[in-house]
Amino acid sequence: KSSPLGSIASFTSRGKENYKKDLARMAMCYPHVYVASVNIGYDKEKYLKVLKEASNHPGPSLIIAYSPCIEHGIKTGMEHSQSNAYLATQSGYFLTFHYDPKIAKLIIDNKEPDFSKYEDYLMTENRFANLKRVNKENASIILNNQKKWAMDRYNYYKKISEE
Known about the structure:
The protein is α+β, with helices and mostly antiparallel strands and 163 residues long.
């Protein structure tokens, strides 16, 4: 499954206890694949630019788009999904970047994440907020591990973007 660590879903009623797949990282192992992670709620212009680049790429393209859904349980409602999406990237939960094989370079599109807002983002969604109710004894450990994973992931992408 590609659900995030700590999320509550039908198959993880006490919070998912292992890490999600990093599909972008896997796809970038293939040097001919255009790979991007986009969030229309964070930057509409970059979102459209990256989609156009991917569409014009002469080989396979993989686009991973931040896509909130009703199952996430956005506490303020789906009508606020774009502002919630902005916070997802601002906090470091969801990175935006693209890898263009023509220039063999990863480009991070979002600003440096503010990881101090990470838990603020998580608590906007019931799938994470409910973890503190259903798994009180492990919730803070699981959520801290998720934040550490996000920070490590960002540092990995930042390092390869600088190569």
